[in-house]
Design a protein that fits this description.
Oligomer: single chain
Strand content: 25-35%
CATH class of the largest domain: Alpha Beta
Helix content: 25-40%
CATH topology of the largest domain: D-Maltodextrin-Binding Protein, domain 2
Radius of gyration: 35 Å
Number of helices: 16
Structural class: alpha+beta
CATH superfamily of the largest domain: Periplasmic binding protein-like II
Number of strands: 36
Length: about 625
Amino acid sequence: MVKRYLSQITLDEAVEKVLELFGALKSSGTVPLAESAGRVAASPVYAEYSVPVTNVSAMDGVALKSSDTFAASEQNPVSVRDFLRVNTGNAVPLTYDAVVMIEDVWFEEKGEGITIRKSARPWQNVRAAGEDIKQGELIVPKNYRIRPFDIGALGTYGVTDPVVKKLRAGLIPTGSELVPIGTRPGPGQVVESNITMAAAWLGERNVDTTCYPPTPDDPEMIRDVISEAVLENDIIIVSAGSSAGTRDFTAGAIGDLGRLVFHGISMMPGKPMILGEIEGKPVIGLPGYPISAQVVLREILGPLLDTLGFSGPPSEKLEVSLAGDLTSNVGYDEFVLLSVAKHGDHYIASQQSRGAGVQMASIRSNAYLRLPAPIEGYAEGESVFLNMTRSIAHADRSLLVTGIMEPPMGWLSNILSEEEIWLHNGNTGNISGIIALKKDICHAAALHALSAEGGYNTEYIRQYMPGEEIHMTGIAGIILGIASKTGIGIDELPGSSIVNQPAGSECRIVLDRLFSGRSIDPESVNGYSRVVNNPLSAAIAVAGGNCDAALTSYSIAKTYGLEFEPVAVEQYELAVRAEHMQDERVMRLIDAISSEEFRRVLDDAGSYDSGITGKRRIIQ
């Protein structure tokens, strides 16, 4: 029988149901005072004793009776013999009611008395017992979030182990394909990282966690570990097994042990999410895809934890202009990751990959946007408010670069990070990068667009941006060549099998020009019409024995241990509109390209030609 989602409800209904069932969940315990920052007091906290515990001196000086100094002045010095020398914080005996600062005291020659030239007021420079707080007085009420600076006061008032709200979440990874972090996955294997991520996210909210070992795809074993987790935790989170496949057993296990509240939510990513209840405790089934798991934690579990007093860092909202259309599936609340940067007098946002398994989209983004279920999306240039996952100050120091993202852009990102300038790269392709430059929805484009005539970048920029002044800076020469296991050269391809790349791509144009220059008939090359997506896929095909050779870059060939015969050098350049050349961030990027540090990195890599690096030209 084909498994179906039991029930698919809206995001708002799902949050409402979670809060209705578990919004009153309570659990508390003590923590050492030093570990209480960020925790919420579960009950009122009272002072164990008065502070000060007795009258103390607020100054270095002498304690005395204020009545003994009556009428003292410069013209009428008064001699006092009943006094006690005190330092700041020393107890002041009850027989005294004032402290005179040491600089206002003159000690008499025989040391038996002092001379005062200014009368003292009662309780002058004396901190009365309980002045700060009295024994039994309220320090903080329940539901108060303890801040780091509060801890000093709590310790001063005798608090050692405050009673705070505590939750423990049991985290259960499932799947026979899982291998631990640090293990290189083989074919069909997946590194288990969702639970590690969830534990870090919960820890930021001061939720304690127990991480259970990975459980294979076995219904009985999954039921057993969930039963154990229910006994030991307040919240149970099961990773993977939440979809409707033949090896997805989480929903069945929850239903066997308790109640399945819903299975499936009209939200993307995160559609397969499960909510169950076992012994009054929430059991959440996370989708296996990492971005889906993140969205479920933030959008479903987050509101519950906020209600229970386990809030995370606040998220800033920012109005931005969209750098492209954002389409959505009507009927689904959709969450899109974006990169945001200040651009002139406003902010622009460019979407990252929307694949639920593309974790680099999360790393590269600094914001997200909710596309509500009733709408079809937002148009390019439309203003929207989104949620920042980093500070607005981060967006102020960010650069949006589109086009082709080769490894040198990552190395430049590393150099710029020293100045806290953050490079957000969008791998859009050459033509899309030029169009973004034309529309002025990026700061720069990294390009190696080869025309049919054999030139790089100039012809395409003039075609799409006629009459505009574009400043070009050479990044690096990307060495292209024939990768193989046996050192095959271009002239040996007719007797070999290859994989090719899409028509119009740089590698395809280079290969066709090489064939034409050597009068090689493409049809004589076995595999000329067999196309893979990109140079990386081509190298993988060679390394995997699916073909004898392919055109790729030197850096990729080295990665897969292949022999390499160079045939061409691509001209990889940064393109910037003239009006943005004075932007400090753009200037720092160009400085980084021209730096000796970057040139050393290129030379050390051994896969690039630094002959054009830092060279500038203008296209008009």
